[in-house]
Amino acid sequence: MAEMGLLSIFLQLIRIRSKDGNFRFEVNPTDDGKVLAQKILESTEGADPKTVTISNKPTPGGEVPLSALQGRTITNLGFKHGDLFFVSYKSLDPDSAPAASSAPSTSVAAPSAAEPQAKRPWESVNEDPVDDYWRARDGKIPRSRDAQFCKHGPNGMCDYCMPLEPYDAKYHAEHNIKHLSYHAYIRKLAPPQPGKQTSSATSLPPLDPITYRVKVPCPSGSHPSYPAGICSKCQPSAITLQSQPFRMVDHLEFSSPELIDRFLGSWRTTGNQRFGWLIGHYEPYEEVPMGIKAIVEAIHEPPQEGELDGLSLELPWDDEKRIEELARDTKGQQIVGYIFTDLTPEAEDRSKSVCKRHANSFYLSSLEALFAARLQLNHPTPTKSSRTGLFSSRLVTAVLSGTPDGAIDVQAYMVSEQACAMVDADMVEASVDPGIVRVKEEEEGRYVPDVFYRFKNEYGIEVKQSAKPCFPVEYLIVTLSHGFPTAPSPAFLSTSFSIENRPGIEEQDVSSIIADLGRLKAGEVTLAYLGTVGLLGPDDLKILAKTVTSPNIDDPKVFDPLLLTDGWQTLMAIVQESQPTRKRPTQPTPSSAIPSAPPDDFEIPPGAFDDDDLPARPAGGAIKVCPHCTFENPAGSVDCEVCGLPL
């Protein structure tokens, strides 16, 4: 035992750096150099042993073949404990070896150079149109000429009037903008260099997703994978929680106030809380430099069970893929977030709601924050600015809750990248106190690094404190602004159809859909229902979705593709049969019902049949037949009562 302990004391640590990474090897000073050479070869990937060289300098010059280490001990080689050496080599090419004997080296290299290189993850990403919009612009903040400091002419420019960068800290502070926008943050990390062309091989993306997981397998390869072994190369570093400097979405906008009113209808009827997915799209938000706003066009309510103080739902739900495909077919919509209610009427006045969320309690509970992190992990954002092709998420969390004056208002939030990484590593959990997040205990299979957070104490001094066992949930939250447009122009012109998954409150059937389809003002709920009853096929449903969301809905030519589909004609036949029977013109009565002839001395007053006294007869007869669906409309009608098209 004493000999073993003495041997471990004299072991030397030799550090190796190569293109495969950094490695550390323990050797005995009396070991032959071939022991170290063998370990170096094992750490390489496909290296040609004849080309492996070792040097004590990172720059070319002074390289020694690895074979020169054999026959001499570590001590004789002059290697000391902690020395760092640099290894370089050429990889083996098994395909080129046979060809080299029969062809010149130039003929072998030509095919390999002509072969297309595999695209890296971020090079094949299809970004959102709002990302393409901001990438095509410089995003600088324009400034007008300063009358006090600018001494140049109207066509000149100086430091007082030149445009500011989108990440200018002073501008954000003056306009009370707490977070940088996503693209402004990218510009700050990697500002464009005008006049300098950078190749794709040297211009790497500036973003790298955060991860707090243990790397499996270990990059060093010197020990078994976790949990059998762990080292500084594979374990995550200590975490210091801090406010996220940027946000993926800057503003949440509902296309119409009627969306919120219809969503609250279930709570007003039952008192149970409600959950819904926000369907919409992203657009530039000019109020923030290079900002992005999420515009909500519809709210889809999945199957759920509401309660007075919460709700339960199953994720993912069965209809998720169909709703996402329907949203994409409707003007390129997508799921941009979710909304839920947290409302409790006041005991004294039932028309007012209790204000639960404020500065002295919480804004987003720990359970809601971790739930948001899990959903954001399931909806990453494709981007060319990340080495993995994905970064963070644009999924917005909206809460309907009471205000201090008893009204109901919307609050919009997101959670930070640190929150998503901690949830992904299974490090945190919700606590009984809604404003506190608890750090889990470390156990087999779960490694929890040190977690700290900074705050100012009662003396105004910033101190650093351990986040174990718990820390405030505010460190994980990112706030957004919200509002409604001044001139609403929603994509869906109707929200009157019964909302799905409200049993006992609103029922969906074919007869109740006639009012919407009669005037071609279908909403997202109507389209989602039509996809379940089988009246319209997938192709016909896409045409209907494109038609009802067309900006030129008043143009009759917009409906031509829809009127030619078999599904629409079948649906119109059902609609026409469901219409109430219209009174027809009176038919000639039987002879028995004809009144007796007037007496012989009866005289018609003069002027009784003058043309001036007769009512004007409607042009075109008493009935107007619709040329599109053949429905008989009353005289004087402008639009058909069934299909809504002009007569």
Distance between the termini: 103 Å
Compute the number of helices: 18
| Poorly predicted residue ranges | 1-9, 96-115, 198-202, 589-595, 607-620
Strand order of the main beta sheet, please? 9-11-10-14-17-18-24
- Oligomer state equals single chain
Overall pLDDT score: 82
**Overall shape:** elongated
Percentage of residues assigned to helices: 10-25%
Estimated structural class: alpha+beta
- Strand % is 15-25%
Would you count the extended β strands for me? 26
Biggest beta sheet summary: 7 strands, mixed, barrel
Radius of gyration, in angstroms, nearest whole number? 37 Å
Blueprint of the fold:
Elements (H helix, E strand, L loop, with lengths): L1 H8 L2 E7 L2 E7 L5 H11 L9 E3 L8 E2 L8 H4 L6 E5 L7 H5 L4 H10 L14 H7 L33 H6 L5 E2 H8 L49 E3 L4 E2 L3 E4 L2 H7 L1 H6 L4 E11 L5 E10 L3 E3 L4 E3 L6 H10 L4 E9 L23 H13 L1 E3 L7 E4 L2 E7 L5 E8 L1 H8 L3 E3 L5 E4 L11 E6 L5 E5 L3 E3 L4 E7 L30 H5 L5 H10 L4 H11 L11 H4 L2 H13 L44 E3 L6 E3 L13
Parallel strand pairs: 1-5, 6-8, 7-21, 9-11, 9-24, 14-17
Antiparallel strand pairs: 1-2, 3-4, 3-5, 10-11, 10-14, 12-13, 15-16, 17-18, 18-24, 19-20, 20-23, 21-22, 25-26
Helix pairs in contact: 12-13
Can you describe this structure?
The chain is α+β, with helices and mostly antiparallel strands and 647 residues long. It is 23% helix and 20% strand. A hairpin with a 7-residue loop joins β15 (380-382) and β16. α12 (366-378) packs across α13 (417-424). The model is unreliable at 1-9, 96-115, 198-202, 589-595 and 607-620 (pLDDT under 50).
